[in-house]
Amino acid sequence: MAAPTIFSNPLEKWIFHKTKESVFLVDFVPKKDADGKIEEILNRLETVPEDKRQKLTFEDRCCTGFVVDDKSQELKILCSAHCLDHLFTSENPISAQEIGDLYDINIICDHYECSFRKDKTPDKIRYYSRANIVQIDCDKDLILLNVSKKNVLAYGKNGRACRHSHPALVPSKRHLEPMEKVLMVSWPPFRPRTVASGKVSHCDREYADTSKTNLVGYTMTLVEVNIQSEPGGSGAPLLDADANFTGVLHGGADGCSWFISLPDICQALTSWGILTQ
Question: Which Pfam families does the UniProt entry name for this protein (predicted)?
Answer without folding.
Answer: Trypsin_2
